[in-house]
TrEMBL record:
Family note: Belongs to the pectinesterase family.
Protein known as: pectinesterase
EC number: 3.1.1.11
Position of the signal peptide: 1-24
Length: 218
């Protein structure tokens, strides 16, 4: 597993149910700094998360200063609906994984497969377990680059679902050498236009309750 290198990534974490957010709650009450050199509140990301009570009802920002924060499974996107924009992710094996329901938009993914000594890299490991589950990973208008051979992902569940839309890979409106389907696995599912539309729509896939509009500006 390779590392997540934080350069300009600004991570905002709100540890209360988004349905309880009201328009009156517009002030950030606490900012937590994570800095590996010891110049912040905590050295490790998990320490910062653990410091926030589970019944928290206030806006809390966790800011990650530049550094290498993880040597395994860079981003665990395990549960819930999330929106990532203008982010940078780097790794080699399963470095975006879980059973979450996110949209990654206008983000950069750097695959460091060359560090594996000849082995193949895997960008995602998505854990959807049945047709009834609504989760899946959607990469929209992203840039995927790096060194060495890499798979877009591997199945971490019986019904794993990952869509790269209008990015450098995949066959749905994508371009570049990675869009060649001739060496794809035979069991890959080709989605209909309606299915693609459902997945790539921020409103229909992750924002049904309009919770994104209730986020703070910063």
């Amino acid at each position: 597993m390779q590392s997540l290198i934080i350069s300009t990534f600004y991570f905002t974490l709100s540890l209360f149910v988004f349905l309880n957010v009201s328009k009156a709650q517009t002030n950030i009450t606490k900012t937590i700094i994570v800095d590996q050199s010891g110049k912040g509140n905590f050295i490790h990301v998990q320490q910062a998360i653990d410091s926030i009570p589970s019944n928290n009802q206030e806006w809390t920002i966790i800011h990650l200063n530049p550094g290498v924060y993880n040597l395994q499974d860079t981003l665990t996107d395990w549960e819930g609906r999330h929106y990532f924009e203008n982010c940078y992710f780097e790794g080699a094996i399963d470095f975006i994984w879980g059973a979450g329901q996110p949209i990654y938009q206008h983000s950069q993914i750097n695959v460091t497969a060359s560090l594996l000594g000849g082995g193949n890299a895997y960008i995602t490991a998505q854990a959807r377990g049945s047709d009834e589950e609504t989760n899946g990973f959607v990469f929209k208008y992203c840039t995927i680059k790096g060194t060495g051979p890499a798979f877009l992902g591997r199945a971490y569940g019986s019904h794993s679902r990952v869509l790269f839309y209008r990015s450098v890979f995949d066959e749905i409106g994508c371009t570049g050498p990675g869009a060649d389907m001739s060496k794809r696995v035979k069991w890959e599912k080709n989605l209909s236009e309606e299915e693609v539309g459902q997945l790539v729509s921020i409103h229909r896939f992750i924002n049904q309750e309009m919770w994104l509009q209730k986020q703070l500006e910063h």
